[in-house]
């Protein structure tokens, strides 16, 4: 039986999900709260991890190992690097990388550590489902390379560095770490993010202004995707 994890990083990113799903049971574990519910006979566990790579890796691991989720969906906000992405646009991650993982002193590529890989590809079936669901609902969902790091990027120079080294379209602080856990445990992962800022000097201001609306845009699409998955779970197995 499938069990779906739906994650965000911040309370604002999962608030629309907690509002939508009914009969939620909250469980405290490892300094966090996990919200269990069910929908169309599919069990769901919702949690926000707190910001950054370490917290998001911890939460993902707990969702998989303790709560036995076998699909992970991430919904949240991101900064745009690609100039064609505007605030409120939605992206689906095709692959993720850690832009702040740097042992280049030893001749390695930025983002690479031995026995790891610079990029982790996202699950193709889930990407295609997300694209189909978006299309059916007249939502423009763009494919994006997502770069993750433990820093809020608000500067042109850092944007350029991340683009030059990763060809990233969007940046955030959790996707690649969630991906490392899912990839290691062989769990399909889908990351949907709506743009909250363009990672420039106005990013902090824009983020505060658009966090709720962009988190909502992403969560709304994610709910539609969950509805589709719950009715077509066989396509994933
Ligand atoms: N205002 C918050 C901090 C937000 S950090 C506070 O004070 O508590 C930004 C969050 O949104 C992270 O979870 C990250 O994944 C995402 N994000 C959005 N825009 C980003 C950007 N420009 N750079 C990095 N992460 C960004």
H/E series, N to C? EHEEEHEEEHEHEHEH
Return Rg in Å: 17 Å
Helix content: 25-40%
Largest sheet: 5 strands, mixed, barrel
Bound compounds, each kind once, are:
S-adenosyl-L-homocysteine
- The CATH topology label is Rossmann fold
Structural class: alpha/beta
Tally of individual helices = 6
Q: Major sheet: order of its strands?
A: 5-9-8-6-10
Q: Indicate the low-confidence ranges by residue numbers.
A: none
β-strand number = 10
Number of domains: 1
Average pLDDT, all residues:
97
Regarding CATH, which class? Alpha Beta
Describe, in plain words, how this protein is organized in 3D.
The chain is 36% helix and 28% strand. With 237 residues, it is α/β, with parallel strands linked by helices. It has a single domain, classed as Nucleoside phosphorylase domain (Rossmann fold). The chain has a 5-stranded mixed β-barrel with strand order 5-9-8-6-10, surrounded by 4 helices. Helix 2 packs parallel to helix 5 (175-184). The protein is globular. The model has no long low-confidence stretch (mean pLDDT 97). The structure holds S-adenosyl-L-homocysteine. S-adenosyl-L-homocysteine (SAH) binds next to strand 5, strand 9, strand 10 and helix 6. The site of S-adenosyl-L-homocysteine has 18 residues, from strand 5, strand 9, strand 10 and helix 6.
């Amino acid at each position: 039986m499938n069990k779906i994890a739906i994650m965000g990083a911040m309370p604002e990113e999962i608030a629309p999900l907690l509002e939508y799903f009914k009969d939620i049971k909250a469980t405290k574990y490892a300094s966090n709260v996990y919200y269990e519910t069910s929908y169309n006979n599919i069990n769901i566990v919702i949690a926000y991890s707190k910001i950054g790579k370490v917290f998001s890796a911890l939460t993902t691991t707990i969702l998989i190992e303790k709560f036995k989720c076998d699909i992970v969906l991430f919904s949240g906000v991101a900064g745009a690097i690609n100039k064609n992405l505007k605030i409120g646009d939605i992206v689906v991650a095709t692959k993720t990388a850690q832009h702040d993982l740097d042992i280049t002193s030893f001749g390695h590529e930025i983002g690479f550590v031995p026995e790891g890989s610079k990029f982790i590809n996202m699950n193709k079936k889930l990407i295609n489902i997300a694209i189909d669901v978006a299309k059916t609902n007249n939502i423009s969902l763009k494919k994006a390379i997502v770069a993750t790091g433990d820093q809020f990027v608000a500067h042109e120079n850092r944007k350029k560095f991340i683009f030059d080294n990763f060809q990233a379209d969007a940046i955030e602080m959790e996707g690649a770490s969630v991906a490392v856990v899912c990839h290691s445990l062989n769990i399909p992962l889908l990351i949907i993010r709506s743009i909250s800022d363009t990672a420039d000097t106005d990013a902090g201001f824009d983020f505060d202004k658009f966090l709720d609306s962009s988190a909502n845009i992403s969560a709304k699409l994610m709910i539609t995707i969950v509805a589709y998955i719950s009715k077509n779970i066989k396509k994933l197995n």
